[in-house]
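cron nightly-structures :: item 1 of 1
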Amino acid sequence: MKLSVIGCGYLGAVHAASMAELGHDVTGIDVDPERIASLSRGVAPFHEPGFNDLLVANQQKLAFSTDMSAANGSRVHFLAVGTPQSSDGSVDMTYVNQAVSDLLPHLSPGDLVVGKSTVPVGTAERLLTMVEPTGAHLMWNPEFLREGFAVEDTLSPDRLVYGVTDDDAGVNDTAILDEVYAAILAKDTPRLVMNFATAELVKVAANSFLATKISFINAMAEIADVTGANVTQLADAIGHDDRIGRRFLNAGIGFGGGCLPKDIRGFAARATELGVGEALSFLKDVDDINLRRRRRVQEILSAELGDLTGKKIAVWGLAFKPDSDDIRDSPALDIVESLARAGAHVTGSDPEATGPATRRIQSAGLEDSVTLEVDHLSAARGADAIVVATEWQHFRTTDASVVANLVNNPLVVDGRNCLPAGEWKQAGFVYRGMGRS
């Protein structure tokens, strides 16, 4: 089938290449000429494991353009543009609205527009009034990608969600999308069909639940710090309860990225618009706990080192999570900036995110206080403290005795509780974790 994907950022580019992998002819469309040029050359414009290989392997089935007219002739049009956070916490719908408006002249009767962007509940009903006069139909098909696993999550998702209209068109549209996802459905992937509002809520409800679970265990870490409890052992113990589960109970410096922080704020803002803000008032506490965890690192460093002015702090990790170069709302980079503003000289290290992090540091005017390197051992040389802020595998497996010979002062703050604490202590380090010692 011939498909178009409108928006070729993280979501759209991975979706386009994955649909080509499923055998479809795909045209990706985006307003960013540099991004389109890179994708056209078969070069991924961001780091995502497996994506570049997928892109190269399917070049014959993929085309990319900055011209919306390239969508002409496609049977299905996936809408995958960004929905950033506005200054008031609500979702900025500028790009979605513009993309749909630009697509309308290129739709034909019987075409299917499939929304994948994360939008406020009620958006699909509004967009339907724009799409219907063209004779095209609308569905909502939210994405559930985890950065670092995006290719896997697209080609082998744990479920497919279809938001449809309650009429015969919805039945026919479901059959078309089934054809697009035939190879995925053949693996017995659960497929859930529901109305627009429910489909729109699935993504933000799931992310809000996960964010709440993470902030809960981080709140327990705060209790553990003042009582001498071990939050990791606590998580192991409560995680054995089938009603709770162990996943997403890893205490640390909190969540970041382009989804969880934005989605909980946007969801709360939308609930307020709908007159039911109290239903999601707890999400403000979830957000507050998350932001407080970032400040905890500086509190520990100040307690151990005193005045941070002139101290050299090595921060291992800049991306918001491992196997990604994404620095959006990154706790690690927030820590780098706060330490620099406190007078420390920060040497940050990340295997993939130094490029985008450099641009942010420059825009913040902190170039004189922050040095960024790819090699984490070089960053540690002469340091008064090391902070592990992103749990890259090669940070976790670094030989502590090697690091001990590089640093000026053997202090490590394990912001992700990912290091073998005993090994670091044996190597002579003062080890400080998040809710564990």
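cron nightly-structures :: done
Residues 5 and 78 are 5 Å apart (CA to CA).
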